[in-house]
Design goal:
Length: 88
Amino acid sequence: MGLTHFSFNVRNTQKWYDYLVSRGVECISRPEQSPRGHWFFFAKDFDGNLIEMIDLRHMHYVLGWLGWLGGWLFRRGMYKRYYEPTSA
């Protein structure tokens, strides 16, 4: 269990993909559309960390306003076990 990747919300994933490829960045997928309509692709940084470039479209604003609520619900609901201290 741990960090699998990190994400950046961007506009126009195809433009970002083209830019990164032109700069020699290793992109491991081409831009594709999720079932919910978001466009995304994955790249790797120089240390091999996985980076997701995603265009959240209107959800960017929803998460901006309600992100704190989602975090609060996740910590107390379905993801509660991930936030509980572990014994060594």
